[in-house]
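User:
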Amino acid sequence: MTDDFVQPSEKLSWRFPRTFWIANTAELFERAAFYGMFIALALYLTRDIGFTDVEAGYVAACFASVLYLLPTFMGIMADKIGFRRALMLAFSLLTVGYLLLGAAPEAERFFPGGSAVKHTALISLALIMFGGAIVKPVISGTVAKCSDDRHRARAFSIFYQVVNIGAFLGKSVAYPLRENLGLQYINYYAALMAICAFFFVVFFYRNVDTKGTGKTAKEALMGLVKVLLHFRFMALILIVAGFWTIQGQLYATVPKYYLRLLGEGAKPEWLANINPLVVVILVIPITHWVRRFKPPNAIGIGLFIIPLSALTISMSPQVESVAGRSVSILGLFSLHPITLMVMIGIGLQGVAECFLSPKFLEYASKQAPEGEIGLYLGYQHLTTFFAWAFGFAISGHLLNRFCPDPKTLSSEMHEQWLAAIETGTAMPEAYANAHYIWFVFTGIGAAAFMALLVFKFVTDRIDKAQAR
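Assistant: Predicted structure:
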């Protein structure tokens, strides 16, 4: 076995070259940094940076969506300069970006004028966006280069587990940092993870051969245009984007919704970890179960479950009216109805993902023209681009309308809100319909499910007509 690839052998192995494990360790640091920052981003933009809910929604929408559009083009640069240099550049950008984001609230001291804090935050998010967009194709490219065809599935299964572990660790650390030190220290923690990854790459990462791989920027752009103009493929992308629009509310809506209704002692960062935990536990048995399902049937199950997850969260007032403010769980412990329903809703999201994700690429590949499957699947991440652009933007408007920032309340209503948080008395009228937010996302999920049924019906008829 060399350090560049796994030699074919008669027996499958879990042994991979040193560079493979170095790349995955760097990925672990990067994901722990990113998800720690990302779970708190919506809160940070409003509380410490000074954006309104609507403004923060648009800023986060731009950041999160473009982050999923850039990797194709950043991968072209990485092929040119080499993976090691690309990773060093990426983690340098991430370190500076996270540090600058954490220091942004102090910018007014050095650049008076009223907008320095917001401009600093925007610059820092741009640095993080470009750094993250470089890491994505380089690490996945390294995983591919360090495995042969027979071992690639195992290599990527390790990679995806590393991603989930990093996400779990990042979100777990975010709560104690927010509670004990403040939101900005989550960004300093992320910077520490990024700089650890930088030095790890400097001292241990070895380049893999990238000759003959990748495309030119012109080819990538022309490919994107071609995909965007292909009606059938884009229709499926937009339908499945409805799924990820709801999934993205773990970061866009849940932190603010949960803290504004239950107070600072609530732990939305830890609740968000229910999703990757469910996926890690159930994805293998569910994938095995649906292996013989037709792809649209498995995807349909995922799209059927996802609106139920939002509907479940919306039902907390009904649960509270029956059980009061404390629901006993098998006599072992008690939960607030909002906590209980958010937990169940997030768990259902994880179950839905286990049904949809294994079959989505297979179904998407069948919508691509013959001979161009690789090109089209290279842009399947457009689902997340559209989902997070729309999902974060609409989240800001919905929060502003139904679950506003307590700082925007009148002094009388703010006192009532404080009393409600501390003593359990009635919340101000401004929060009476906070659960309506989840009715909107229920509708989005239901529309996506119905759109899939229509899509399947129409495309099946077209295919049958063409086969005659």
